[in-house]
Amino acid sequence: MPVIIGCTLIFLVWFSLKKSQAIKQELRTSEAFWEEERRSNTIKKCDISDLNYIQIPLDSLPFSDTCPDSIKRCQDQILSLSEKKILNLTGLTNTELKLRYGTANLPFLSEYDTNFLILCRTLNQWGILLKDEGFVEDARSILAYAVSIGSDISSTFVMLGNILKEEGDFIALAQLKERTANLSSIMRDSILTSLREMEQGE
Q: 5: how many CB neighbours lie within 10 A of its CB?
């Protein structure tokens, strides 16, 4: 019995220390965050005209005048987006954006990032519809473009990976996996797992 009581006391002391350390770490993290936030609000507006804006290559995408309305809607959305500013800001928080470019630029950057998200979703939907209609090569082209601009939509990668696998293009599939490994997205590991399982199922 004394041994059990002793072990219990040791465990309680250890647990208390661990909990205290976790609380202190959480406080330090919170303080660091708010310090960065305060500092970001003092950054002056920077010139953002030379950022890496995405220019949609309309001439190289498989637009068609004779297609179902669902595909036409995707095409129209892409055409509309081509007239807007688009930036891939995946992985950057609002605080980081303000620190880099100034608080006054945040509304513009948020808008350009939203345009990017809409672009990626539209490309993904376009690819799905094309593949369902039997236009596999056009779907591959659309999905490959989405990947090239930094989309992190899981179904885009999985669908493109399946097309590459079905076509026996395992070099391109390996390259797709390499590109996935360089994503700055929380979806990276999940997508990599799917692609690895795809390769193992050869």
A: 9
Are 131 and 164 spatial neighbours (Cβ–Cβ below 8 Å)?
no
Distance CA 99, CA 114 (A): 19
Q: DSSP state, 9?
A: H
pLDDT digits (tens, 9 = 90+) for 92-147: 999 999 989 999 999 999 999 999 999 999 999 999 999 999 999 999 999 999 99
Q: Angle at CA 30, nearest 5°, toward 26 and 33?
A: 140
Euclidean distance between CA atoms 183 and 174, whole angstroms: 15
pTM for the full predicted model: 0.78
CA-to-CA distance for 61 and 71, rounded, in angstroms?
Answer: 13
Alpha carbon distances (Å) from 131 to 9, 52, 116, 120, 141:
63, 30, 23, 17, 11
Are residues 119 and 86 in contact, defined by beta-carbon separation less than 8 angstroms? yes
